[in-house]
Amino acid sequence: MSLTFYSINAASNADLKKIKADNVEQDGLGLPRRYWAVLSILLGTFLGNLDAAIANIALPTIAHDLSGTPATTLWVANAYQLALAISVLPLAALGDMMGHKRIYLTGAIVFTLASIICAIAPSLHILIIARAVQGFGGACMSTVVPALLRSVFPQKIVGRGIALLALTVALSAALGPSAAALILSIANWHWLFAVNVPLGILVVTLATIILPRGRGVHRAFDSIGAILNALVFVFLIIGVAGLGNPAGDTSATIEIVVALVLAIILILQQRAHKTPLVPIDLLRIRQFTLAVLTSICSYMAQTIAYVSLPFLLEHQFGRNEVGTGLLMTPWPLVIVFVAPLAGRLSDRFEARNLTTIGLAVLALGLSLLAALPADASSGSIAWRIALCGIGFGFFQTPNNRVLLTSGPRERSGAAGGVMTMARMIGMTMGAALAGLMFKLNAGHVSQAALMLGAGFAVTGMAVSRIRG
């Protein structure tokens, strides 16, 4: 009997040690390994976000050097965004199935190799194809980054990891135009892509050595859903881009309608699928779904402002392109300082209170910009734009924390994918609405667009308040 008791007790102790070991693995990395892991994750994030916009500055030069029309050259930017959009949900599913580290590493390698091809591209068509491949690599990295941060940080301070992600995205947005201008002042446009190569190699090296391996969950991949998802975004993005073409109203409208029909078919197909691409299990969680809706509203508000502010500053306030760029900089720049504070607060206080405050500040800032007089000084414009950045930065981290932690840890990849999709949907819808308003060409259209953005921020506040 004593031998039996000893065996049971030894087995219990072994189980207890296994549980403790699993908990240690699940509750983040120790120091200093966590610092190196965060560096490898955020450096990849910085590269992906910087490259999404850095080529825009050089589009006229690229068109001249490679003998391309403006409409064709625009696909140097669009190909990256389109590849990113259609890849997010499939890659989120693959991340949960195969392990997030594997997807991240694949993305970093593809991104680096595609950067080499972009840098030596002899023709515009090869450059566009390479940019699409680069966008796929960027999607691999950005989609699983939230899940990787959740695995690296202990649960009680995961908000700080999400804050660092927001800071990195804001910093890349703030530095993008300046970095592009600096490179182009001393070298040709090929170097916009060549500078990615040494940094990409560093990301691959660090991620291989430092990041936790993670374990995937066996489930079937929904290939039909992936195809439908891709078609939805192809038609949606091309249709929204066509709204800005005065002669393309009919075709753009048809493309958007086709996208909506395909989206309905996708939803019906997903509801009948055993392992759907769209994470329906997470969308059944009230907190998660409301956080997604709030995120969409916030990005619609931000994108409407980003589209309308340059027109307001140049056409009505008489600022030149350089002045407009400088006045727009406070928005992403203040997020660099606000995000760490928001991250710490999100680990201590209820998310809906923090997100409500952030969206209220964003709505106030947009309203104050819409009410500016025609002779407004640069200082009065700049502090209002900074106020918008403070509000958006204060909202983003606690809301993303809810998105990432509402579901089980093994669904972190899917949660990160939905986080990215919410951003893309909000930005696409915001751009479409702003484009429609400018096409109407009514008086004070920029101010009206800013008030519409403020309205979406207020809508986001309302949705945020009904969370449990």
Automatic annotation (TrEMBL):
Membrane topology: Multi-pass membrane protein
GO molecular function terms listed in the Swiss-Prot or TrEMBL record: transmembrane transporter activity
GO CC term (a single one): plasma membrane
Compartment annotation: Cell membrane
Highest rank taxon of the organism: Bacteria
Protein name (record): DHA2 family efflux MFS transporter permease subunit
Database matches in InterPro entries: EmrB-like, MFS, MFS_dom, MFS_trans_sf
Transport is among the record's keywords: yes
Gene3D superfamilies noted in UniProt: MFS general substrate transporter like domains, Multidrug resistance protein D
Domain spans labelled Major facilitator superfamily (MFS) profile: 37-468
Keywords of this entry: Cell membrane, Membrane, Transmembrane, Transmembrane helix, Transport
